[in-house]
Amino acid sequence: MATGFLTPRRQGSFLRNDSSASKESFSDNLSTNVLASPLQAYKYENNRRYHAYREGSYWGPNDEQDAYHQRVAHHLFTLVLQDRLYLAPISSPRHVLDVGTGIGLWASNIADANPAAQVLGTDLSPIWHDDATIRPNLTFEVDDCCSNWTYLDEGRELFDLVHIRCLYGSIKDWRKLYQQAFDHLEPGKGYIEQVELSLIPRFWYTNTADEGAGNDYCSLDLESTSHTEELNSIFATWYKFWQECSRQTGKTWFVADQMAGLIYETGFDNVREIRYILPLFDCLEGMTSITTEGTTSIGEELMGGYSDYPVPRLQEIARWFRQFWETGMEGWVLAVSTRYMGWTADEAKEFVAETKRVLVEQESRVYYELVVIYGQRPSDSGI
Q: Per-residue pLDDT for 342 more than 70?
């Protein structure tokens, strides 16, 4: 098989009848653009492009603006993980699956780092057509990870690493996805690893008796007046927005805080959770007590276990995390709010604009967490 190129799976699922394939309809807010190949069919809403294959199953756009956001996200995660592509204790993976590969940055990196490995990246959209992603040991396929996996039926080998990143709000049945990953990993060797952003805002206190402590939004007393600023924060509004997204779509946006338990319940062994802090504020001003000589004032659980986590790196992470928000917000809010919540596109864009103003003002001491989970399929498949 030629690798590094688009390889459609389950060909029949991509076919359209002639009548639908010959039509092109446009309106002010929504249009359908059907190209020569059904694999390259896209939907356009509010001047953003979305996937048409299994339309609506994923909320995010797949245009160049989103591709730039993915590059920012990849750089951010590389900074946080200190240039490591995964944390699972695998020295040299041979067969790797990247679920929801997007433009294929992680898959390309893992293929470069492991030239003897065979790497497969899958996504709903064929958006990886860049010469930079073509590798002799890398294949991309259009596929829906929520469908039944057919790799074993096709005679493929079991994977020793299944990688998932930033699929919050995209999966209705996480247990099924984890079970399919479990079934396709090599017993006693294969690992699943998932990287997700916890969307619960957390607030850093520097002017109270609890200096250096952080509380997540869920722990605040909604009836209290002591945390009025946090309760009225635009990031509290974002939290409520993602709650409503979860209710409206039936797909949770808060999988980062659930996945450790779900992966363990699936039957994985050696499940480990690592959390990293992602500040949205100036760390040198708000968190200078992070590293003092011989001590670490932030709990190591927030720093991924690294007691020597340097403040300058946190400063850089904070800058890139703000860029992550600035480049991603419109894509996060536009489709879901207009499809499910009755917002207009202008209302969605004003929400984004207001958030950008808050980010520039740097008054909110808010941070989030990047959560990494990995687990191993045990040798006894019956567990």
A: yes
